[in-house]
Specification:
CATH superfamily of the largest domain: DD-peptidase/beta-lactamase superfamily
Largest sheet: 6 strands, antiparallel
Number of domains: 3
Number of strands: 21
CATH topology of the largest domain: Beta-lactamase
Mean pLDDT: 93
Number of helices: 11
Radius of gyration: 26 Å
Strand order of the largest sheet: 2-1-21-20-19-18
Strand content: 25-35%
Length: about 475
C-alpha cells in the first residue's frame, strides 16, 4: 500500500512536538472545554493506525446526524463491494444480427446502468461511433431500458418527510446532463409584456406555457414541469426586469423518454434515418452492441468525496443496490447491501440508519466511532484504500476542504470528507502526524445554535493538533 507521506516544514509546526498520548488527550479536552457547546450534541473518535488503538473518544458511540459524511459509507462500500476496476456502462444495442447492408432491420436499444456523469456530448459520440459502422437507416423503434434501477425515481418517494430538503432530479439508470435542462428567460423591452423563453437542447419534446411578465421589479422566475403523454410541459411564471436575462435549471420528469427523443434528433443530425416510435421498456437479454460509454467507478467516487456531489452519490447508492439485487435495484436494496456488508465485516452498530447515499436525509444516523471503524477497515484493504484516500478533499488544496487549515501542519496533509446540514457540521478522515502516524478521526456536532463555521474552527484546531503531534521517544 502506498500512502502519501507529508513532510511538514518547521515553521508550521507550532508547539506540540514530543508529547505523550495523555498530553494529546488533555490538549483536545482543553479545546472542547473552551467550546461554547450550548445545547449541542457531539461525538469524537480519534484512532492511531500505528498504535492500533483509539487516542481519544468523547461521546463516540452517540448516534448523530452525519450529513454528507454518509458519502464515506457509500463510496468506501462501493469500492469494497464492487471493486476498484468496476465500470459503469451506457450502451446502444440492436436486435439485428446482420449489419453488412448498413441498415438496422430491427430496433435499437439504449440501456443505462446508472452513470450520473453521462452527458449529451457522450450520446453524440456514441451516435458517431454507430455512423462510423456505416449505418444509414434504422427501420425499427428506439427502446430505452431503465430497468437496472427500480421505478422509484425521486427521493421523496422513498424517504419519509424528504420534502423537508431540496429535491434532487430523478435518480434513474438512464441519466443525461444530471437530468436537467437550462431554461433562459429574457425580459421584454417593454413592461407588462411576456419575456422570451428558450431552452437547451431545443426539441419538440418540451412544450412551454409562458405566464411570466416583464416588470420593473427584481427577477422572480419559476418553472414547474408536468409529464404529458408524449413529452413534458414547462410552465414559466414570475417577473423579470426589462432586457434582463435569467437562467434556471429545470428538472426532467421522465429522463428515459427524454433520452429516447434526444437520441432520435442526434441520429437524424448524423444522417441516420429513423421514423419509428420511442418506447421505454426492458430490453431483451441477448443483443448486439453498437457503441458504449464507460465510466470508471473511481472517477465517480472522486467527484462524490471531493465535491460532495449529491446527485452522483445517490446514483452510486442505487448502483450498489442494483448489484446487490442483481438488477432493478433501489434505495432499499442499497441500504440492505450496506448493512449486510457491515455485519459481515463486524462493523455494524445497533440502530445505525442509512437511507440514502448523499447524507441529505435527516433519517441517517450513526456514531463517530462506527465511521472511524469503517475508515480503519478500508485502510487495511490495500488496493481499494489508495483510490479511496486519493478521492478525499485535501486541506487547503481542493474540494470542500479547499479553504480550511491553510498555512498549518494539516495543510496538504489532512484528507477528509465534510458534511453540513441545518444544525449539523462534521469532518471525518485521515491526517498524518508529525512522526508519520496516519491518524483516523471523525468529529460531528449536532443541534447547535452558533454558526457552523464556529464548530468547523473547533474541528480544524483538533485536526491541526493531530498533525503537529509527535509521540515522545
Amino acid at each position: 500500500m502506498k500512502i502519501q507521506r507529508f513532510y511538514i516544514p518547521l515553521f508550521v509546526v507550532l508547539s506540540f512536538l514530543h508529547a505523550n498520548a495523555q498530553e494529546l488527550q488533555e490538549r483536545i479536552q482543553q479545546i472542547l472545554n473552551a467550546t461554547k457547546t450550548d445545547s449541542s450534541e457531539y461525538g469524537i473518535a480519534i484512532f492511531s493506525t500505528r498504535e492500533n488503538k483509539f487516542l481519544f473518544e468523547q461521546n463516540s458511540e452517540s448516534l448523530l446526524l452525519p450529513a454528507s459524511t454518509t458519502k464515506l459509507y457509500t463510496t468506501s462500500i462501493a469500492l469494497l463491494f464492487l471493486g476498484d476496476e468496476y465500470i459503469v456502462n451506457t450502451e446502444i444495442l440492436t436486435d439485428d444480427i446482420n449489419l453488412d447492408d448498413n441498415i438496422i432491420d430491427g430496433n435499437i436499444f439504449f440501456k443505462g446502468y446508472g452513470d450520473p456523469s453521462f452527458s449529451i456530448s457522450h450520446l453524440e459520440e456514441m451516435v458517431k461511433a454507430i455512423k462510423l459502422k456505416g449505418i444509414k437507416n434504422i427501420k425499427g423503434d428506439i427502446i430505452v431500458d431503465d430497468s437496472f434501477f427500480d421505478e422509484i425515481l425521486f427521493r421523496e418517494e422513498w424517504i419519509e418527510d424528504e420534502n423537508r430538503n431540496v429535491p434532487l432530479p430523478a435518480i434513474c439508470a438512464t441519466t443525461i446532463d444530471k437530468n436537467t435542462i437550462t431554461l433562459s428567460v429574457r425580459g421584454n423591452s417593454r413592461t407588462n409584456r411576456k419575456p422570451s423563453v428558450s431552452f437547451s437542447p431545443k426539441m419538440d419534446y418540451f412544450t412551454v406555457v409562458n405566464s411570466a411578465r416583464t416588470t420593473g421589479r427584481r427577477i422572480r422566475i419559476g418553472a414547474v414541469v408536468h409529464q404529458t403523454k408524449d413529452g413534458e410541459k414547462i410552465s414559466v411564471t414570475g417577473t423579470i426586469p426589462r432586457n434582463r436575462l435569467a437562467t434556471i435549471k429545470v428538472q426532467i420528469k421522465n429522463p428515459p423518454l427524454f433520452i429516447g427523443h434526444l437520441l432520435k434528433i442526434i441520429l437524424t443530425k448524423n444522417g441516420i434515418g429513423f421514423n419509428g416510435k420511442i418506447i421505454t421498456q426492458p430490453a431483451p437479454e441477448v443483443l448486439n452492441l453498437l457503441s458504449s460509454q464507460e465510466t470508471p467507478l473511481v472517477n465517480l467516487i472522486s467527484e462524490i468525496n471531493k465535491r460532495s456531489d449529491n446527485f452522483i452519490a445517490e446514483h452510486l447508492f442505487k448502483i450498489i443496490g442494483a448489484n446487490y439485487s442483481e438488477g432493478s435495484g433501489g434505495a432499499f436494496d442499497a441500504s440492505q447491501a450496506i448493512i449486510t456488508f457491515l455485519k459481515s465485516s463486524n462493523l455494524y452498530e445497533e440502530d445505525l440508519s442509512i437511507v440514502d447515499g448523499s447524507g441529505i436525509s435527516r433519517s441517517n444516523k450513526f456514531s463517530a466511532k462506527a465511521l472511524v471503524r469503517l475508515l480503519t477497515h478500508i485502510y487495511y484493504t490495500k488496493d481499494e484504500f489508495n483510490h479511496f484516500y486519493n478521492s478525499l478533499s485535501i486541506a487547503g488544496v481542493d474540494g470542500t476542504l479547499g479553504n480550511r487549515m491553510s498555512g498549518s501542519a494539516a495543510y496538504s496533509n489532512c484528507r477528509a470528507k465534510t458534511g453540513t446540514l441545518r444544525g449539523v457540521t462534521t469532518t471525518s478522515g485521515y491526517v498524518t502526524s508529525n512522526d508519520n502516524d496516519l491518524i483516523i478521526f471523525s468529529m460531528n456536532f449536532n443541534s447547535f445554535k452558533r454558526s457552523a463555521n464556529y464548530y468547523r474552527d473547533v474541528m480544524d484546531r483538533i485536526i491541526i493538533l493531530l498533525a503537529e503531534f509527535q509521540k515522545t521517544p
